[in-house]
C-alpha cells in the first residue's frame, strides 16, 4: 500500500519536518515541490522530523510541471479551504496523492479550478482562516488510511513494562 503526500512550495521547515515524521510513521511517500522556504537540510526540518528521516521516502521536484511529468498517472486530491467537497466525501484508493499548498496562500486558484472535482476541504469554524499545514496533512492522511483499513500498519501496541 502506498499513499502520497505532496507539498507544493512549503515555507515553514518545522511543518515539513512534522509531516515527514507522519509519513515515516504511516509509510506514506513524501513529495516536495520547489521552491521551498528552507533547505531540506535545515536544522528545524531535521529537529521536527526527529530520528525518523531514514524511514521516509522523499522526492523533490523543481516545480509543479516537473512533478506532473514524473507522476503522469497520479490521482491527486487538492486540499483547500475553498473547496465545496469535504475530505470525508472522497473514496481514497491505494496510490492516491494528497496535495497541499504553501502555508501562507494554499494552492494556486488556477490549479484548484482545473481540478474542481478533486478539491477537498476540512470543515472548520467560519472565523478560522485555516488549520496548521502539518495538522491538515495528518487529518487527511489518516482518513485515507482509515478507508484503506490501515493496510500495512501495525495494528497492536505494546506496553513498555507490562503486558496487555
Structure description:
By secondary structure, this protein is of the alpha/beta class. The protein has one domain (4-147): SPOUT methyltransferase, trefoil knot domain (Alpha/beta knot, 3-Layer(aba) Sandwich). It is built from five helices and six strands. It has helices spanning 13-26, 43-49, 64-70, 109-114, 133-147; strands at 4-8, 29-33, 58-61, 76-79, 97-100, 119-120. Strands 3-2-1-5-4-6 form a six-stranded parallel beta sheet. Helix 1 (13-26) packs parallel to helix 2 and helix 1 (13-26) runs parallel beside helix 5 (133-147). The protein is globular, with a radius of gyration of 16 Å. The protein starts with a strand and ends in a 17-residue tail after the last helix. 33% of the residues are buried. The model has no long low-confidence stretch (mean pLDDT 92).
Summarize the structure.
This protein is α/β, with parallel strands linked by helices. It is 30% helix and 15% strand. It has one domain: Alpha/beta knot, CATH 3.40.1280.10.
For this entry, give a set of tags.
six-stranded parallel sheet, 164 residues, alpha/beta
Task: Set down the secondary structure blueprint.
Blueprint: E1 4-8, H1 13-26, E2 29-33, H2 43-49, E3 58-61, H3 64-70, E4 76-79, E5 97-100, H4 109-114, E6 119-120, H5 133-147
Parallel strand pairs: 1-2, 1-5, 2-3, 4-5, 4-6
Helix pairs in contact: 1-2, 1-5
